[in-house]
Amino acid sequence: MEVSLNQHGTMALQTSIAMTDGSRISEARLTAMQTARIAGFSEGDCSNVGIVATELASNLMKHAVKGELLTGMAEWAGDRVVEIFALDEGPGIANMTECLRDGYSTRGSPGTGLGAVTRLASTLDVYTQAGKGTAFLARLQAKGAGGAKQQGRMEVGAICLAKPGEQVSGDACAIHHETNRCLYVVVDGLGHGPDAAAVAREALDVFNKRTAMNPAGIVELMHRALRSSRGGAVAVADIDFNENMVRFAGVGNIAGVIVGLDGQRHLVSSNGIVGHDVRHIREFSYPWVKDGLLVMHSDGLGTKWNLASYAGLRGRSPGIIAGVLYRDFSRRKDDITVLVARTAQGRA
Questions:
Q1: In angstroms, what is the C-alpha Rg of the chain?
Q2: What is the DSSP string of 85-109?
């Protein structure tokens, strides 16, 4: 299953590997290389992806209390990238500069330590906290690709995982970017598995065809389209840069939060199940704050998170923010989608 991230690209459902023993390092390498092959990478580029996955997985095995490697594929403006998240609950990294130096030892791994990750990744973002753990996000692209940069006024990062044991997810997210407007949707099909995934696909189909409409209108059309399905929860957010407003309409337990310098503002959804029991579809407006973050997620993520608890995290990439929230607040018993968007650097 693929999750549409914007009108210029897609992101494949990610794969999770819990780093519980040494055999998982090889599994991580093979999974990452297979993802790169699917993305159309050359064998040389696939080998580089394998080295990065091996180094990050080895680092998790050596230093993490609890480590997990996520691998997925994204496509931005025609260029495909492989994304590798390494998330742990270890002691944190005291000297990040030294750790990422090429040649820094990871005690015998095939590359040259985490410096190899810095050297081979197209982009690398890291967040660490003493006593709480570290999150890496490495993006790799094929040699000769044009840069694989997201388009539009907003940067987006996402975690999209199926319930453990399932091959498809009933969660989905999508975005649509225009010059002065960005539209976001998160869907959670009721339950999990293929039937829930069918709900998500149908809802995204409505969204992709009706992006000219306001959020309440899109949710209303989804409600009609899903009447013969099991239904689900939906939320749509529309950031209008001309008016500096966020318009939001939701039904069910999709969370929406605007994070600013002065705290977090939770967006209001209505009760009900889209496709079945919806009494009112209401649209609310909120001010879009300068340097704000929009976070939307399904109920696979707990709601008691607060970015103020993470010094410096708010300034990291949206992907790292999504990864840390997943690491610390995932319920681990359901499909999960976490979408984070913020104004692109230089576009405030």
A1: 20
A2: EEEE-SS--S-HHHHTSTT---SS-
